[in-house]
UniProtKB/TrEMBL annotation:
Belongs to the 'phage' integrase family. Gene3D superfamilies: Intergrase catalytic core (1.10.443.10). This is Integrase. GO terms for biological process: DNA integration; DNA recombination. InterPro entries: DNA_brk_join_enz, Integrase-like_cat_sf, Integrase_catalytic, Tyrosine_recombinase_XerCD. GO terms for molecular function: DNA binding. Keywords: DNA integration, DNA recombination, DNA-binding. Residues 128-321 form the Tyr recombinase domain. Pfam families: Phage_integrase.
């Protein structure tokens, strides 16, 4: 199967300069983040912090009026209103990183900055409402279609196959283009650049790649040029392909959530990251070594990989039954 993208004329570049509003410390911090999803998360986080401090948005924060006492009042307010530990720590990271930018710009006094640096994150975690899927549940997500015109089903099957079969992050999935696949020793591989600008190469399960091939056939038949030659394109309601790749991570979230709810029921709250956890958990319970799982997921530390693995509840039950008296 040849999936080399056809040559198209160059799409005209945007002439107008992009306005990133880089003058504020918070904007400088946000723009330093590589991941588009991280930028969205931190923008929302810092806007909420700004409103709690009396400002319209994060760009209007007057850093000469911000100190550790004010930040702790905001943190305590969030804590008392039931914010989860992980989310609270996101606030603390965003505030401290922005404070460092403000200090570097001379907008924050030394003493105030040093006191803000001393603020510690919260420890602990909560059992997540979402969970990895079982092998049976994962298989059931792939909807068969006899109609080659059912572009939504074919595309979404391919998305799920790569999320579950390759353990991709949303940002990695959206970055895949027609040059990302290559064949080696009769197997298709995927080449991606993930978190931390690190490249990794992932072999694709043959059954999973069959779902990808069905979408590739449709994608390769699309005559109009697509900037970036992205694999996954947006679709009109009637299923016609558009010239734009899927750019919003929230679109992938909706695709996964809607398929899971439609197949597994409304009580299943699954996200794209749960598909990544599903891969890790299924590999672990099939005796795959942790360092191999770590490499496939692209984790810098094996301790992160361990957090992705859901312990089998049956194993937990058998373990406590051993303490019998």
């Amino acid at each position: 199967m040849n999936i080399t993208p056809r040559k198209h004329s160059t799409i005209a570049a945007i002439n107008e300069p992009l306005d990133f509003k880089l003058s504020s410390p918070t904007s400088k911090y946000i723009q330093s983040l590589r991941s588009p999803l991280s930028r969205v998360t931190m923008t929302s986080t810092l806007n909420r912090f700004a409103r709690l401090c009396g400002y319209a948005d994060h760009t209007g924060i007057e850093w000469n009026k911000i100190d550790a006492d004010l930040i702790m009042r905001v943190i305590n307010h969030l804590y008392e209103n039931g914010i989860k530990t992980e989310r609270l720590n996101t606030y603390i990271i965003a505030i401290k990183k922005s404070a460092a930018k403000a200090w570097n710009a001379g907008l924050l006094a030394d003493r105030a900055f040093y006191e803000i640096k001393e603020i510690q994150g919260e420890k602990g975690y909560r059992v997540k409402r979402s969970r990895p899927l079982s092998a049976t549940e994962a298989r059931s997500l792939f909807c068969e279609t006899s109609q080659s015109s059912d572009h939504f089903t074919i595309r979404d099957n391919a998305i799920l196959a790569l999320l579950i079969g390759c353990g991709l992050r949303r940002s990695e999935l959206l970055s895949i283009n027609l040059n990302s696949f290559y064949k080696k020793n009769d197997r298709w591989w995927l080449k991606i650049v993930g978190k931390g600008n690190k490249e990794r190469r992932i072999p694709i399960n043959t059954n999973h790649f069959n779902y990808v091939k069905k979408w590739l056939k449709i994608r390769m038949a699309f005559e109009l040029p697509v900037e970036g030659d992205y694999l996954f394109l947006r679709l009109k309601k009637e299923g016609h392909l558009l010239r734009h790749g899927i750019s919003a991570p929230s679109t992938i979230y909706r695709i996964v959530l809607n398929r899971c709810k439609g197949v597994l029921g409304d009580d299943v709250h699954a996200s794209p990251h749960d598909m990544r956890r599903t891969m890790a958990t299924l590999l672990y319970h099939n005796k795959v070594e942790l360092d191999v799982i770590q490499d496939l997921l692209g984790h810098a530390n094996i301790s992160t990989t361990l957090k992705y693995i859901e312990k089998d509840e049956e194993l937990l039950e058998r373990a406590v039954d051993c303490v019998d008296f």
